[in-house]
Design goal:
Blueprint lengths: L1 H18 L4 H10 L4 H26 L5 H20 L5 H21 L14 H18 L4 H10 L5 H26 L4 H22 L4 H24 L1
Helix pairs in contact: 1-2, 1-3, 1-9, 2-3, 2-10, 3-8, 3-9, 4-6, 4-8, 5-7, 5-10, 6-8, 7-8
Length: about 250
Amino acid sequence: MMIELIPVGILVGAMSGFFGIGGGTILVPILLAMGFSTKDAIGISIIQMVFSSIYGSYLNHKKGSLIIGEGILVGIGGFIGGFIGGYVTQFIADRVLEFLFLGLLFFALYRLLISKHIEEGSQTKSINKTLLFFIGVVIGIFAITLGVGGSIVLTPILVGLLHYPIKKAVSAGLFFVVFSSVAGMSSRLLTGTIDFENGLIIAVASLIGVWGGIWLKERITSKKHKIALLLMYVVAIAILLNKMWF
């Protein structure tokens, strides 16, 4: 099982870098298919997200695609929400978590489908700082409860409501994951509900993938990037539906 987790980590890391997701969107369904329980899969996913989001945000900042400003406010909210979410998970049944996760994926798919194309370098909308903070809190609670970083909700909001170009939204989404995942892991450690051994294997392997994913992201057009993002949501939904009903 340990050897099998290495290529899984590299794959998920590449998707984290390319799509700006924590990795849980894909990792949780894969781990469920491999026989892990939902709660163990979520815990492993949170560890992987800490590693991939910190490294990926560092690379995005170096390349100039990460807007730190408003991301800090959403991130602080995400940290608080993520800490709460990591504690809440242990009280929710696996089946309920699966349905919540499915609903989250459908929401993200819908928001991206209806969003308009914004050119790179376009002006983004400003938004009330208090509202940004509370958006972060809500996304943090919901996301860490389900073992995802929250960017699958935040990225469509940034693109659809704040007019972020897709690549900058993806970078901002991964930056948000730093806050929510660190908080989620901290609260999980306090409750003792996390699989560190398997989580570290996937997390370390994911760093290789993160570098490759960001390298590829910088070399494709925004339209192709959006299409790839939509396909990723469809695949994740298919994997989860297969686990839940077949």
